[in-house]
């Protein structure tokens, strides 16, 4: 979830503007949590495919 569409319950302003301490705290928290959720689904699928290929390659080399 992105914070650009969230509205603060404390000041009724968009959280992305950070008008009050509650907005700023939630904006900071959401920015820290958005590492993998910020990636689009195709990037996650590509990352998973690369990891599976690497594991398969390593398993094939050890046999």
Write up what this structure looks like.
The chain is mainly α and 63 residues long. The chain has one domain (3-62). The protein contains 2 helices and no strands.
Note the beta-strand portion: under 5%
Number of distinct beta strands: 0
Largest sheet: none
Domain count: the total is 1
Helix count equals 2
Q: From the alpha-carbon coordinates, what is the Rg to the nearest angstrom?
A: 19 Å
Overall outline = rod-shaped
Mean pLDDT: 82
Oligomer: single chain
Order of helices and strands: HH
CA(first)-CA(last) distance: 43 Å
Which consecutive residue ranges, at least 5 long each, have pLDDT under 50? none
Overall structural class, as computed from helix and strand content, comes to mainly alpha
| Residue share in helix | 55-70%
Key terms for this structure?
transmembrane helix; rod-shaped; transmembrane; membrane
What would you say about this model in short?
The chain crosses the membrane at residues 39-59. With 63 residues, the protein is mainly alpha-helical.
List the helices and strands and how they pair.
Blueprint: H1 21-33, H2 41-62
């Amino acid at each position: 979830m992105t914070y650009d569409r969230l509205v603060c319950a404390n000041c009724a302003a968009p959280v992305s503007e950070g008008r009050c301490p509650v907005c700023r705290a939630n904006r900071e928290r959401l920015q820290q949590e958005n590492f993998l959720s910020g990636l689009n689904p195709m990037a996650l699928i590509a990352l998973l495919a690369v990891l599976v290929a690497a594991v398969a390659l390593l398993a094939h080399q050890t046999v």
